[in-house]
Design brief:
Blueprint lengths: L8 H14 L3 H43 L4 H10 L3
């Protein structure tokens, strides 16, 4: 598929110079740059989602810790062991 885009002269010069140095066509350079940009964008979205989930889990853990108060889970396990449970 063919796409037309408007680029300013300075950017087009940089694209052409870079393509020449890399021994690639302008089209290939733009295609690869666009693919990399989209890959980076998608990775950033995934990382932001992972971070949101981590923060939600941390908030939930804080609420559970608050609800548990002074309850000592390790102490409870020791009691169970001592009582043969």
């Amino acid at each position: 598929m063919r796409v037309n885009a408007i680029l300013d002269d300075e950017l087009l010069k940089k694209i052409d110079q870079t393509a020449k140095e890399m021994k690639k066509s302008r089209s290939l350079l733009i295609r690869e740059a666009t693919e990399r940009y989209i890959r980076d964008y998608e990775a950033k979205k995934l990382e932001e989602e992972r971070q949101r989930k981590f923060e939600a889990a941390a908030r939930l853990q804080d609420k559970l810790r608050e609800k548990a108060g002074d309850w000592d889970a390790v102490g409870e396990i020791r009691k169970w062991r001592e009582n043969g449970r």
